[in-house]
Amino acid sequence: MGNVYMRMWHDGPEVTPKCNSKPTFDPMLGFENGRKPRVLSASAEEMEAVQLPHSQMGYCGREMVDAKICRWKYPWILNYKCHHENHAVEMCLQEDYVFR
């Protein structure tokens, strides 16, 4: 805590922008035809059918559904067989975090 204030004090306001300031660059820079809209990989009905919580419904829905089905197919003692599905969920969440 305090890293932003220390950096602003050390580097100056011209290097470190304020937290709530608007961007000074064009957000469409590099996108000639505009940004491609993101599409959900699983429908809301599919996610509700496997009873995903609302916190997990998102762009990684397909991976979450596959992991939930795998966990249902293999009981708690055999959950190690769902390693690939769990890894796909983690990778999707990481890519989503980086993308945002």
Q: How would you describe this structure to a colleague?
A:
The chain is mainly α. The chain has 4 helices and no strands. Helix 3 runs antiparallel to helix 4. It is elongated and about 55 Å long.
List keywords for this structure.
100 residues, mainly alpha, 4 helices, 45% helix, elongated
Taking all Cα atoms into account, the compactness measure Rg is 20 Å
Distance between the termini: 23 Å
- Count the DSSP helices: 4
In which range does the helix fraction lie? Answer: 40-55%
Net shape:
elongated
**What is the mean predicted local confidence, pLDDT?**
84
Q: What summary fits the major beta sheet?
A: none
State the low-pLDDT regions, or none: none
Pairing-aware structural class of the strands and helices?
mainly alpha
Summarize the entry for a quick read:
The protein has 100 residues and is mainly alpha-helical. It is built from four helices and no strands.
What does the secondary structure layout of this molecule look like, with pairings?
Blueprint: H1 3-11, H2 44-49, H3 61-73, H4 83-99
Helix pairs in contact: 3-4
